[in-house]
Input
Amino acid sequence: MKDTVFIESFEERVKNTIEKYRLIEAGERVAVACSGGKDSTAALYILDKLGYNPDAVIIDLEIGEYSGKNLENLRGFCAGKGIKLHAISIKDAVGHTIPFISAAMSREGFGPCHACGILKRWLLNKMAREMGFDKVATGHNLDDEAQNIFMNFVQGNLGFCAGLGPVSGHAEGGMFVERIKPLYFCPEEETRRYSQIIGFPVVYEPCPLSADTFRTFIKGELDNLEAAMPGAKRNMADNLVAMLPALRRQYKQSGKMRKCRKCGEPSRSEVCRACELLGRWG
Ligand code: FES
Ligand code: ZN
Output
């Protein structure tokens, strides 16, 4: 496919996803959760191009040069497009950098992505709500979603699939800001091609700390499956979307959402997972 045709069809797919799943309603304020990578930058660029007037939010994980470069790239990109950027340092927010947290977690037998994921979600929700955003858009693509579905299936966590889909984090008492995935039906390879054609200033290497070996294994298996059965990943996402209403009915969490005793963020237990984590280091 010629580059110009490819760009058009990629953007059209994102537009259709937003409209079909009503990811953004008229007048809503959207923040794009940016990492400085190709996916979130593409989501930011397309939402801006489609006229949704997004702000960008980045959590500086303080992973040495890697984070520095991502922040610098995103600053330049947002300045060039006139997009408002909100940057917050994880150290200012929780008192520690991700390398510190990840080293502490690995001593307890957890991979670095475990704590990083929990803290990013927690901080993002808090920031987005405090700043009055209606939606937080992420750069999750089709490969991410297919991996999540596959991982939940093979680990016997079907209930976790109820939290997937193009829109997640449905509000309970307005404490969660809904998360939306405009690139839901865009395969990783296509997002990479889109990013390279447009020439986004992004770092293509993965986070140097990422060591989610199970996800890497599942990714390899899915890539093999896709090579043997083109369309397999898309079928998984389509089937998940079709099953979502039933999954959400079936796995609707019992027990009311309450406020974490320590931070006031939504939590199903007395202390939320982020505070439970942070409590380990005083
Ligand atoms: Fe979270 Fe690398 S982005 S550990
Ligand atoms: Zn808390």
Notes: The domain at 2-281 is CATH 3.40.50.620 (Rossmann fold). Strands lie at 30-34, 55-60, 85-89, 135-137, 167-168, 178-180, 258-259, 266-267.
